[in-house]
Design goal:
Elements lengths: L1 E5 L2 E4 L4 E4 L1 E5 L2 E6 L6 E4 L4 E4 L1 E6 L8 H8 L4 E6 L2 H7 L1 H10 L6 E6 L17 H5 L7 E7 L2 H5 L3 H12 L3 E4 L6 H9 L4 E2 L5 H9 L3 E5 L22 E4 L5 H7 L2 H10 L4 H8 L1 H7 L15 E6 L4 E7 L2 E5 L2 E2 L9 H8 L9 H4 L6 E9 L6 E9 L13 E6 L8 E7 L7 E4 L8 E5 L2 H14 L2 E6 L2 E7 L11 H16 L9 H6 L9 E4 L2 E4 L4 E3 L5
Parallel strand pairs: 1-6, 2-7, 8-9, 9-10, 10-11, 11-12, 13-14, 14-15, 20-23
Antiparallel strand pairs: 1-4, 2-3, 4-5, 7-16, 16-17, 17-18, 18-19, 20-21, 22-23, 22-25, 24-25, 24-26, 26-27, 28-29, 29-30
């Protein structure tokens, strides 16, 4: 049956123009763009804009805390019709079983889910994850048509210093003619040259124009990132200008459900760019044809003959207000609501493996105690607002008073507790920049190994929060005086919920707001920020189950300097 989208204005991603014309669709594909077409069904779109479906160039679906079906329900109404996901969150917990779970759970959704196979499980030698993925494990996925390559190569020291196992993963990927995603924050000069020369062709970690331009000049594509915690678009807004925009793609990376539902997905990024004075056409190109061409997604990214009929009907162009969403010519979302669809089946065996991910003993107050007396100069992790980068601060702490915690000076205790193999390993330290004045917060979402992470003002609340997360099989929680203020259970690998998106967003928002009631400033995203404090591939200082890590030198640091 032929369908004709009649009377609309088509956004042409090849010419950066808006052309009033009709679009003819048959069997899920566009077969004509022009006038005087006949069809079995007329879809009247007079006064509307027709735009290709948006593509997220790099996302971790697990970070939305929704199963793939739930994510699709939330993202499709915002015009997202395809994403390239890296399931390294669940792979760090459940290994290849986790990847298989995500691939099964994403079959046939109204949002096409493509995969990059996790490259760094674990991310570094300082991580204790639930699994290890070898080059052999990775290569087994390369025959699947939805697998596009090797996900973000976070282990840039492994590339720079010629680690054989790391280089082998890249070599095999390139031999299959597939893409290797980059992940090299602040890497520059000769080290960057060597990293790119290995075959790594993009980066989504740029936080300033100088960094982005160096990587562009050296041939990489830049994925401009605007997630829940890492919000880089404003600082990289110059990339929307010529000649840079043609080498850029949009990506969210990590996006919490409340943020996704309230503020949008890729549509919100284009909207923000327009608010900053940038071309809506450049934003749409980055979100469509440029992502499709980079990943080799034939038939995606444009409204033109021979392309898939992934079509957005925009009520307004400059505000990128998505009215109706068509996937392969079929309506899948309208007026902010995803139409019903059947979620794909997942084997019970794999589901059980994913839902039983905790192997850790009960935490006791002594487990979190930092040994020492008197006043000591300490390496304190400093949070930088809206960035995943942290800084090392040398601050005096008084171990005789609340074991060094000083809320007046915003010095809080942080602990990362190994949860996969019951090793008993616990990293302990101090953190500043969060502003917490009471209680504690804890989560099983802590990149990338997803051990149990807790930040607090006293050991008792920290212990209570950690044990409650363990009992729930994963989640996020806030505690004050031993009592739960709010929680969000995440039973799937300690990362995701099967709740409906609206319910998940409500839980997510309640637990966030409960932390603001503990005096955390409202412009800080507490759980997402906390989740990245344990990732030792993003400069400059992080905490893992083994202790403090100097990310730049890739070595463990003593907590005290005196």
């Amino acid at each position: 049956m032929k369908k004709l989208f009649k009377g609309g204005t088509v956004i042409n991603v090849f010419t950066d123009t808006a052309e009033k014309t009709d679009v003819l669709v048959e069997n899920g594909r566009i077969i004509g763009v022009g006038t005087d077409y006949e069809a079995d069904e007329i879809i009247e779109v007079t006064g509307k804009y027709l735009c290709p479906g948006f593509i997220d160039g790099h996302i971790h679906i697990e970070s939305t805390m929704l199963l793939p079906a739930g994510f699709a329900k939330a993202a499709a109404p915002h015009g997202t019709t395809a994403v390239i996901t890296d399931p390294h969150e669940i792979a760090n917990v459940c290994g290849t079983d986790g990847i298989k779970f995500m691939m099964s759970a994403s079959e046939g959704l109204p949002v096409t889910v493509y995969f990059m196979v996790p490259s760094c499980v674990p991310a570094t030698r300082f991580d204790e994850s639930g699994a290890v993925l070898s080059a052999d494990d990775i290569e087994r996925f390369y025959g699947d048509p939805r697998v596009l390559g090797l996900a973000e190569m976070m282990n840039y020291p492994g590339i720079i210093f010629d680690d054989p196992a790391t280089l082998e993963k890249v070599r095999r990927t390139l031999a299959h003619g597939l893409i290797v995603n980059g992940h090299a924050p602040l890497l520059t000069g000769k080290d960057l040259d060597k990293y790119i020369a290995a075959g790594i062709t993009d980066d989504h970690e740029c936080s300033n124009m100088e960094e982005a331009l160096e990587k562009l000049r050296k041939g990489q594509r830049i994925m401009i990132r605007q997630g829940t915690a890492a919000r880089n678009l404003a600082g990289l807004s110059g990339l929307f200008d010529e000649p840079y925009s043609r080498r850029c793609i949009l990506a969210t990376d990590d996006k919490h459900p409340a943020d996704l539902i309230a503020n949008g997905h890729i549509d919100s990024m284009i909207r923000l760019a327009v608010e900053l004075g940038k071309s809506v056409f450049a934003g749409i190109r980055m979100a469509t044809i440029q992502a499709a061409e980079y990943y080799g997604l034939r038939g995606k990214g444009a409204i033109a003959p021979g392309y898939d009929a992934d079509i957005l009907v925009l009520d307004d162009l400059d505000t990128v207000r998505v009215g109706t969403v068509y996937k392969s010519g079929e309506k899948v979302a309208e007026n902010g609501v995803c139409l019903p669809f059947e979620a794909p089946a997942v084997s019970e065996e794999i589901k059980q493996k994913v839902c039983n991910s905790f192997n850790v003993s009960e935490i006791k107050p002594t487990d979190l105690h930092i040994d020492g007396t008197g006043s000591r100069t300490c390496r304190v992790i400093g949070i930088i607002k809206d960035q995943l980068i942290t800084e090392e601060k040398l601050l005096p702490v008084n171990l005789d008073t609340n074991n060094g915690v000083d809320t007046q000076r915003d010095i809080l205790k942080i602990a990362v507790i190994e949860r996969h193999h019951n090793t008993g390993h616990i990293g302990r330290g101090y953190i500043t920049g969060l502003g917490l004045k009471h209680g504690a917060i804890a989560s099983s979402v802590s990149h990338d190994s997803h051990n149990l992470i807790v930040i607090g003002t006293n050991d008792e609340d920290m212990v209570a929060a950690a044990n409650l997360i363990h009992k729930a099989g994963g989640g996020m929680i806030s505690v004050r005086d031993g009592k739960i203020l709010a929680e969000m259970p995440l039973p799937y690998a300690g990362l995701m919920t099967d709740a409906e998106p609206a319910a998940a967003a409500e839980q997510n928002e309640k637990v966030r707001q409960s932390v603001y009631a503990l005096d955390v400033p409202a412009d800080i995203e507490p759980f997402m920020t906390m989740a990245f404090v344990s990732l030792p591939v993003i400069p400059h200082i992080k905490l893992t189950t083994l202790g403090l890590v100097d990310v730049d030198k890739q070595e463990l640091l003593p907590l005290f300097t005196d």
